[in-house]
Write a structure and sequence with these properties.
- The protein is built from eight helices and no strands.
- By secondary structure, the protein is mostly helical.
- The chain is elongated.
- The mean pLDDT is 94.
Length: 171
């Protein structure tokens, strides 16, 4: 994939297509992220982000931000990832790209879940599910609701366990 994205990048550069160049850079970034080459990935995402901002392509800019967040998530840098995810979410919301908004909400929920903030995760999974329902992506709606249900079950089990421990310690 790197060879083809690199060729695409060269062609887009040669013909002066900045939007195409930003997409090719993002493609390269995603390949490097998948290979756990995070520093290379961040460099390509950053360049894609800059070009997208320069040409006013808000969708590509928000997508690049989310890609950068994914790198931070892989590095377990949750704080920086959340900042980028919320910035991406703001943009997708403002420009009305509902499918990407829902996908970003799901990533935010995943991040809350990974940090043990189950209530925030549930809230974001349910928001994502509602949007997926509105746009007819029932498979994704079901997945988001399943994640929310799993967390609700976990919270209930923890509550029951705490109640049991409290009762047995009083006996």
């Amino acid at each position: 994939a790197i060879t083809f994205y690199s060729e695409c990048l060269q062609i887009q550069t040669d013909i002066g297509n900045k939007a195409g160049r930003a997409r090719a850079l993002r493609g390269l970034a995603e390949v490097h992220r998948a290979r756990n080459d995070y520093s290379q990935a961040m460099g390509f995402y950053s360049e894609s982000l800059q070009i997208s901002a320069d040409i006013g392509d808000k969708t590509q800019r928000a997508t690049a931000l989310r890609g950068m967040a994914d790198v931070h998530l892989a590095r377990k840098d949750y704080s920086q990832a959340m900042n980028l995810l919320f910035e991406s979410l703001e943009t997708f919301t403002a420009i009305g790209v509902r499918d990407e908004r829902a996908s970003t909400l799901q990533r935010i929920a995943d991040t809350h879940r990974n940090q043990g903030d189950h209530n925030s995760a549930i809230q974001h999974y349910e928001q994502a599910a509602e949007i997926f329902k509105q746009i007819g992506r029932t498979h994704d709606e079901g997945g988001a609701l399943e994640q929310a249900a799993n967390l609700r079950r976990l919270i209930e089990q923890q509550g029951a366990a705490e109640g049991y421990v409290t009762r047995t310690s009083q006996d």
